[in-house]
Amino acid sequence: MDIDLMKEYRKIDDNIMLRMNTTDTHSETSCKEFFKHLSEAYARREKAIDSCLKILDARLEKQQKIIEDDPYNSDVKNQIFVDETKRRMIANEYVVEDIVRERSLTVFKNKCRKFTIPEEFRRWLQRR
């Protein structure tokens, strides 16, 4: 996973106070538009994490098959260890996402009180 890509995707959350201060929070339309950008960023980040995990899972599956055929292949065993470590680190990004989302949504809800977060979005957040 490209760390710079995740940083770029998290910019909206990192700058939420500034963005909320420049958004007309008394306008439901402005809040709706900002929420749209926020939720799109969440979806992009989750898609990136999911994609990386799928790639690593496929790689680990291939490596396990190699080990079944050659249990003494130390190069593949070492690579499995490296890839399993990468997978754990990437999977941990879900925890980071939950924290970032909670922080951002708290700020958003406090500033855009007239806007109601759609129920489908709430369900999307809780599906994992």
TrEMBL record:
This is 327_t:CDS:1. InterPro entries: MIX23. GO terms for cellular component: mitochondrial intermembrane space. Belongs to the MIX23 family. It comes from the Eukaryota. Transmembrane segments: none annotated.
